[in-house]
């Protein structure tokens, strides 16, 4: 089993956390460096990480990788409710990545533009939902959804993308899970 990705990607990290007890090779790619970008394009036309290679099969996207691993490792499938939770987590991740890359590209994401405003509205609404779910202890089990949430929150803190002061239940969830397996070795600050 081989996982391609970057140390800083929250999507890659969730798969690394999931594989914490499994033997696998992690190929750390600098996806914005020319050489690794060319390698990424040769392996994956979407130019996204993570990608997972196993028995000659290349699997793209963290969600698809999870479904693949449910079969290979006999992991439980997500319920429809958990799928929706993951969709909310992914919506925040996707919007924050969009804003982050826009800023790195020299765009002013604080301008009153529909595209930026929609991203910010999605983030706020989704964070509110996750806060409510965290208050209800819906992420108490350390499973793929909780790993995805932790990866998101730590990436937000690492990149200084959001203030989490108004989300005490999410902060508590984050603090409670800092000692989980592979949290230290998958830390995005290790780059």
Give a written overview of the molecule:
The chain has 7 helices and 4 strands. It has helices spanning 10-18, 34-43, 62-72, 80-104, 114-135, 144-159, 168-176, and strands at residues 2-5, 25-28, 51-54, 57-60. Strands 2-1-3-4 form a 4-stranded mixed β-sheet, covered by helices on one side. A hairpin with a 2-residue loop joins β3 and β4 (57-60).
Q: How many strands, what sense, and barrel or not for the largest sheet?
A: 4 strands, mixed
Distance between the termini: 23 Å
Spatial arrangement of strands, main beta sheet: 2-1-3-4
Bulk shape? globular
Topology:
Layout: E1 2-5, H1 10-18, E2 25-28, H2 34-43, E3 51-54, E4 57-60, H3 62-72, H4 80-104, H5 114-135, H6 144-159, H7 168-176
Parallel strand pairs: 1-2
Antiparallel strand pairs: 1-3, 3-4
Helix pairs in contact: 1-6, 4-5, 4-6, 5-7
């Amino acid at each position: 089993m081989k996982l391609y990705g970057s140390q800083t990607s929250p999507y890659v990290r969730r798969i690394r956390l999931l594989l914490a007890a499994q033997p696998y090779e992690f190929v750390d790619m600098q996806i914005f460096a020319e050489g690794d970008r060319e390698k990424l394009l040769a392996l994956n036309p979407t130019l996204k990480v993570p990608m997972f290679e196993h028995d000659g099969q290349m699997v793209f996207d963290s969600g698809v990788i999870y479904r693949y691993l449910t079969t290979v490792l006999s992991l439980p499938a997500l319920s429809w409710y958990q799928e929706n939770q993951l969709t909310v987590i992914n919506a925040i991740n996707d919007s924050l990545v969009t804003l982050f890359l826009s800023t790195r590209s020299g765009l002013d994401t604080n301008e009153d533009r529909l595209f930026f405003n929609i991203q910010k509205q999605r983030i706020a609404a989704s964070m509110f939902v996750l806060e409510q779910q965290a208050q209800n202890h819906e992420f108490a089990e350390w499973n793929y959804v909780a790993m995805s949430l932790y990866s998101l929150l730590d990436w937000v803190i690492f990149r200084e993308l959001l203030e989490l002061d108004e989300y005490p239940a999410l902060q508590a969830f984050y603090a409670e899970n800092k000692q989980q397996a592979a949290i230290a070795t998958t830390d995005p600050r290790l780059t």
